Amino acid sequence: MAKASEFKKGMVLEVNSVPHIVKTIEARNTSSRGAATLYEVRLNNLITQQKFDLLLKSDDQYPVLDCERAEVQYSYTDGDQYVFIRMDDYSQHPVNIEDISDELGYITEGLEGIVALIVGGVVAGLELPSSVILPIVDTSTSIKGSSSSARTKPAILCTGLEVQVPEDIALGDIIKINTATGQYMSRA
Hints:
Strand content: over 45%
Number of helices: 0
Low-confidence stretches: none
Shape: flat
CATH class of the largest domain: Mainly Beta
Distance between the termini: 43 Å
Helix content: under 10%
Strand order of the largest sheet: 9-8-7-10-11
CATH architecture of the largest domain: Roll
Largest sheet: 5 strands, antiparallel
CATH topology of the largest domain: SH3 type barrels
């Protein structure tokens, strides 16, 4: 059991008999004297991938689940499953496409830094690296003399993900994307 004041990003907790991963924690101090600190915790259900918010007092407790973290790499697609290979023992772990639909726009073959959360021998979720580098496969032509900090335009990446990029970015450019926000960071 862990108290809300001990929660850390990435912990796997059992909430309503279902595994949830802690995505964000924000402590809120109330203004009156002697009032308890409240913790606003955002969780992701590892089975349905739905987001779930809790507002907890520092003494509220939830069971911590045993969850193995293993570095994996995307290998291939088999029907409606993505197959990941574990980097330490090269075992294969299939994951349904709908279970990782939010992450698909960032996953490419050979992408390193993916961590699988394994509960009971099954991949319950993926943690992506903080940023990925992807090429642009479709965008409008760049405007000569445009500034990199001015207006933006849509661009489609090799994975099918659409992001907003500065106007001076051209077709074929390779860019860095923040996986948490889905926003353009810089040229690679």
